[in-house]
Amino acid sequence: MNSEKALSLNPMVAVPAAQMDQFYKNGFSKERIFHGNGSGFGGLFTCTNNISEYTTSDFFTEVGKQFKVMLRLSSTSSQHGTSETYRDTRGYSIRLESEQDGIFDIVGLNVPIQYVVDRKEIKKFHSSQQVNYASGMFENDARWSWFGQNPASTHNVLMTWGDRGIPKTWRNMNGYGVNTFSFINSEKQRFWVKFHFKTMQGNEYMSDEEAQKLSLNYPHYYTKDFYQAIENNNFPKWKMYAQVIPTNNDELFDFNIFRMNNIWPHSEFPLIELGTVEINNSKYHQWLEIEKMAWSPSNVTQGIGLSPDGGLLDRITTYPLVQKSRLNGLDINPISKHVAKELTTFVSGKLYYKYEEEKPNNSIYRFAKSFYNMIDSDAKDRLSKNLHVALSVVSPKIVDIMLQNFKQVDQKIYEDLLMLRKNDNL
User: Which of 35, 80, 163, 193 is the most exposed place for a label (fewest CB within 10 A)?
Assistant: First the structure.
């Protein structure tokens, strides 16, 4: 079976038994390079708002209708078996399943943005955040050198070394689709859309010291907590929302709404409630079932489309190929006819590609400044402390570059870091 032969309006195509036999014989699946440390669970999505003016999707047009959901939570950079409380962005991948429309996957994070803006930098970024396979060691200089040379990543650095870099539990963090999708209604009108999942348990975080203590005895602390919550019928829940922009308005904004490091201010694009996610089923084998599910941005159903978001367009085509390799040749995420048509619209047809570059005069620090100004003074102090500890093991010349980047955000964080380094004789 291959993607060409498996074209279908429903991207979930049954896998032949012979291929599944080979899958099991080959030892389940290969180790993930990114997001290897994670676990998956099942539950329900309940639609709470009919938004048929925006989309014909089965998921969002009948109040009270329920759909099966699969959710996988993970650490981004750390590999399988390492501590889950390591400071990092977290993966938030959710699958909505409809008997009518098929499968819709949102492969997101617990932050609304990505580090990488220039897609040519993806390979370098990945290498800088992983163990150096030549030496077998993680290199702090490589990580922070990449951050320094790519100042557009500063916004995400502030988020990750701020409070949300170590959530108290997976239950206490938000999820974000990061990429820009689109809604398509019955009149074939298109609307740009971003997806959000707001925790109903409240946003809570822990310090580096707390995380380190937990990791000594419970390296899989987040997974353990999630299992216990479900066993105690304290089912984790999230509210799902969308931000929507009519396509005829996208030229009115002074920033590129499709760049993965730009956010859509809620004051201009308020959240529209879609429904509730409840996770209530932990009866899945993490290797034999969860790993095989292979969430992919290529799983998009009717009523939902793509956009000029270059990161999304890349992921649509690369995820199925990487997963086919990881799953020992299983073509588990064939490109559907619907998605193939959308790719033709946005790639082959070059439609909307004028938005690929950032608009003139838009500072790459714009949203980093907004984020820093939004957090309170105590959160600013914790952020400076966390950054100081992280940078204390980095070469001075790289630290100097990072300090200049932070100075572009706010004079206070720059001066705070200088003072902390002076006090520690760095």
Answer: 80
